[in-house]
Amino acid sequence: MTAKKVKTNGVETAYRFDGPEDGRVVLMSNSLMSNYTMWDWTVPALADKYRVLRYDTRGHGLSGVTPSPYTLSQLADDAVALLDALGIKKAHFVGLSMGGMIGQQLGARYGDRVHSLSLCDTACEMSPRSVWEDRIAMAREKGIAGMADATLQRWFTAPFAQRAPGDIDKVRAMILGTSLEGYIGCGSAIRDMSQSTMLLKINAPTLVLTGRQDQGTTVEQATVIHRLVHRSRMLIIEDAAHLSNIEQPEQFNRVVRGFIDEVDKTL
After folding, report:
1. Residue-wise pLDDT tens digits, 48-66
2. Per CATH, the architecture of 4-264 is what?
3. Contacts of 221 (CB under 8 A, 6+ apart)
4. Model confidence pTM above 0.90
5. Every domain of the chain and the residues it spans
């Protein structure tokens, strides 16, 4: 099934469904500098039972690009507007990195729209602010292509990069396909993020999942989320950095599917 588009919250959003039409919806939200194909490694583990809905965040993939900066509340509003446009009242949510930041907003501000949250390789605060100011400045100077190598080194462990060049090439293509304005817009949202207090409002069952070697959103940052979300559990995936769903898909898929199944049985 190819991508479709719908106008949501003032921007065209590209989305795709996989799985049975009568299945409960799982909404999946991508990381910065990627698109919904980052979930190609994950969808097969869900689509036998669930109606998997993937979309491209504003400024990414095939979705529209609006002038920067963006905010995480705006990006969460986009996700809810997509559910509204498609007539979906409630969904399980899976987000990685920026997607997990959006998921925190959904859980705190739109708790009636989520059955569960899987917050993967993410954080609720980003400090120091200067790191993101430097990255945005570098993007303006060198373009997205000038950031690809350093990004891939942060996102994956060296052993994985050596054994899976095909996967690395796919991710590189996602990075290079990201618009500069979209990167700056979403990067600004991450730079300005301050969501710790918001996490206290989340009541949905929550899985906090992270790669042991994740440099961008560390185990310590995941632990903060786990401690603040009172119905959460945390699991660390060994031998994985930032895109743990791609580096260790079997582990990632087993944990996420098991968690969603467990919650789904109670609905």
Report:
1. 999 999 999 999 999 999 9
2. 3-Layer(aba) Sandwich (3.40)
3. 122, 123, 124, 125, 210
4. yes
5. 4-264
